[in-house]
Amino acid sequence: MEGAEATRIMIGVNESTIKGYPHASISSRGAFDWALQKIVRSNTSGFKLLFLHVQVPDEDGFDDMDSLYASPQDFKNMKYRDRTRGLHLLEYFVNRCHEIGVACEAWIKMGDPKEVICHEVKRVQPDLLVVGSRGLGPFQRVFVGTVSEFCQKHAECPVISIKRRADETPQDPVDD
Amino acid sequence: MEGAEATRIMIGVNESTIKGYPHASISSRGAFDWALQKIVRSNTSGFKLLFLHVQVPDEDGFDDMDSLYASPQDFKNMKYRDRTRGLHLLEYFVNRCHEIGVACEAWIKMGDPKEVICHEVKRVQPDLLVVGSRGLGPFQRVFVGTVSEFCQKHAECPVISIKRRADETPQDPVDD
Predict the structure, then answer these.
(1) CB of A73 within 8 Å of any CB in chain B?
(2) In what residue span(s) does the UspA domain sit (chains A, B) (predicted)?
């Protein structure tokens, strides 16, 4: 096992639904901290972390109702802004890896998070995918969907879903 | 992360359906090898492996139809025999850990594997549960049930399900 290629762990990360960009969601940070504390531990040279942030083009259409678009440039600006915010989100994880001394890569894709994550797993072939999960009950899940359940079924690599700690769960568990 | 308590990984192991005791199933060995190669790596002091083997009392009743029980001793002998075989199964994993230098514990429980595993997770509180999976399709799953899916839903810790490699899958995928 000495000298083997680093174990490549892909971590899906998203922004906080409470604080928005560039803040990472509670479950993203939880998944990252868990991977560091329980898997990487002191063996920083044995692992490489791959951070994937998937941006939802316009999550449910409501955002657009408050916006006025007068030119193609307006759309360009919007996309550029979201992309920039996504970069700041990734910066948090890349900086922490740099401090700790773990190799990492980070990138942004647009689309439906659950499908894009599975597609990227196929393309990048990590050894392991770690996703945070809000740990919602069946009733809440119907409305918000769960990326982690979908990935556990469809991703072509082993998947760990990390639930938030009870003391980190916001008043409304749908928040993150 | 230095000097932290070892990460405790529970691994559910069972006997081969083809070779029987004391041979470990393909998916049990796969789950173990995966945990060593991808998680433990060279950091042998950072992890402790907990092997749980659950024995099914009489899997579907058919075994008993070929047996004649004349005294309470007959039952005792049978249970003792199975327990002994289970011990030899665990011996394989404990020996390999000893060779590599990873701390481990191993024990046997009787009952329905999926329920006993979840119960033991609750009792022992590992950081991670690793279970092998045959990777069966939906049609095959109906008849054999899947321990890994049940554990992913119900175990009170993060769960990784490790599928067998395609080149290790027997002709009949229900075999293991």
Answers:
(1) no
(2) 25-161
| Ordered per-residue pLDDT tens for chain B, 176 residues | 455 799 999 999 999 999 988 999 999 999 999 999 999 999 999 999 999 999 887 655 445 555 666 777 776 777 677 778 889 999 999 999 999 999 999 999 989 999 999 999 999 999 999 999 887 777 666 656 689 889 988 999 999 999 888 888 888 888 88
ipTM of the complex: 0.84
DSSP A21-43: EEEEPHHHHHHHHHIIIIIITT-
Residues 6+ away with beta carbon under 8 Å from B12: B28, B31, B52, B53, B54, B113, B117, B129, B130, B131, B132, B147, B151
How many C-beta atoms surround the C-beta of residue A20 within 10 A?
Answer: 10
Q: Which residues of A touch B2 (CB under 8 A)?
A: 42
Q: Is A89 on the interface with B (CB under 8 A)?
A: no
The pTM is what?
A: 0.87
Q: Which of B129, B131, B158 is nearest to A133 (CA)?
A: B158
Give dist(CA B169, CA B6) in Å, integer: 33
Instruction: Inspect the interface and report whether the beta carbons of B36 and A1 lie closer than 8 Å.
Output: yes
CA-CA distance, B87 to B109, in Å (whole number)? 11
Query: Could you tell me which of B133, B16, B24 has the C-alpha nearest to residue B89?
Result: B24
DSSP state, residue A168 = G
